[in-house]
Amino acid sequence: MLAGWMDDQLTDAERAELGAHLEDCAECRQLFETNRELWVSMGSLPVPPPSEKIQVRFDAMLETFKQGVGEKRPDLFYYLRQLFAVRPGFTWGYSLVLVVVGVGLGYWFSRPSQPAVAEQPLSAQVRELKEMVLLSLLENPSASERIRGVSYTSEIKNVNKKVIDALFSTLNNDPNSNVRLMTLDALAHYADDPAVREGLVQSISQQDSPLVQAALADVMLKLQEKKAVKPFKELLRQKDLNEMVRDKIQQTLTRLI
Fold it and tell me: CA-based, 20 to 30 A from 33: which of 93, 211, 217, 227?
């Protein structure tokens, strides 16, 4: 929901639910403020102006284009008109040429159309570009850049296996808990895929952050994923498990079993 708030994708009811939860949960409230400050900071990053060389080249190209548009070159009909003006006797020959051209064009357009070469839709190219940027940002040493990379998933409806694998690698190995939380939220949107659901279940035993563990409990409960019962029970055996997380998991198990 924090990711949804930052992307302005929450409904009024969800915003009210988030606000009520933040009033009672100090830890989530602190996380919310941290993410909001980060989001605002990212939005206020200055955009560097183009260099003087780029401006000069652009002006030169624009001037060349204007000159090209302003010049009107004589076409075929211009030369034909000149020909008739000089030699009126060519009128019959010109008429014959028009007839031949008309018959030829009629034959050309009446032919059965050949199957066109399928071109890659522009939307597919845009999706591939976003996936490439996403994968690149996930490798960035800056946590804010990795969060920005994860946020690209909200703009991609169908991601390929390479992106899913990269997201799971981030969820299970990223040193920043905020990045992992954002990644978990992104992966939850693809939970209709059995492979994604299985990956989320396996991720339970690989998390050490209380925030991520609690968030995983919420996701498993929302998905009603029975396979999560076993790894959650194993997690409860850890003596150093956060008490808040312990209570959260016990409540989740009660509603899953």
Answer: 217
